[in-house]
Amino acid sequence: MNAEDRALVDRFLDMMAAEAGASRNTLVAYRSDLAAAAELLPQGLGKASSDSLATLAPAWAGLASSTLARRSAALRRFYGFLHDEGLRSDDPSAALPRPRHERPLPRILDRGEVEAMFRAAEDRAASGEPGALRNLALLELLYGSGLRASELVSLPRRAVRPGQPFLILAGKGGKERLVPISSRASEVVQRWSLTLTSETHWLFASRSKHLSRVRLFQIIRGLAADAGIAPERVSPHVLRHAFATHLLAGGADLRALQTLLGHADIATTQIYTHVDTERLVELVNERHPLSRRAQTPPIR
Fold first, then answer.
1. In total, how many domains does the chain have?
2. pLDDT tens across 149-172, in order?
3. How far is Cα 159 from Cα 193, in angstroms, rounded to an integer?
4. What are the C-alpha distances in Å from 62 to residues 41, 95, 134?
5. Can you give the pTM of this predicted structure?
6. CA dist 242 to 200, 236, 247, 278, 300, Å?
7. Torsion angle of alpha carbons 29, 30, 31, 37, nearest 10°?
8. What is the CATH number of the domain that holds 150?
9. Cα separations (Å) of 76 from 66, 89, 137?
10. Which sequence positions are flagged as catalytic?
């Protein structure tokens, strides 16, 4: 990426952070996607023509549909910004590839598998060993509250307070939301907190900073292996999906689930209706007013 394009990208990302409230991870992803495009555009990003952008489709033909969609979206926002700011007189983004992106159903664990993970984690934590207590607390908060991995590892030490059944955290885009904390999760977190030193700032500290998402991923896969579950089937995000799916199966409505998960758009939450279709059909059969009417005998 040349110096002129780098300056434009910096201005764009400054706008995304200040006006759109984009998280650090989102900004890193946008920079990476824009840099990948710049390598394939002889004129550079800022001066690329519609014809140049059209060449990205065959160049990116081997990418996964989700990756192609993300890169195209990053470029569209970038050129929209240049046009809005008067840095370009046109917006060439109509020439970008528009992949058909079908959102895959989330991978989940059934209740028996989640219970097996808890049993294995509780057995280890019974020894009082700090690492085992920490792992149980992580599991409780992931499955019991549906936290994102980044939200969980960055919790401050006193985020979970005794007697307070919720915590307030900043999710994607810095938007605050209330997250419920079960009494059992609170109890485990308090037991874990007793092992922390007074100067520790993070609830799940790791040397000078908090636990990394990579390390959290490794811990969760280790807990899955302890429970006899194939580690490759489990991740922090899979437990978040299990939290949502099992709540829906228990009768939670989509609006409540949207709030709990911190989704800006309920369309994102609706993916879970496809996971538990059997329960939804049963719900209609049991709760719909017509289901309580006597069936009319067929006309002969």
1. 2
2. 888 898 888 888 877 777 777 656
3. 11
4. 18, 18, 41
5. 0.58
6. 31, 10, 8, 16, 49
7. 110
8. 1.10.443.10
9. 15, 15, 41
10. 148, 172, 237, 240, 263, 272
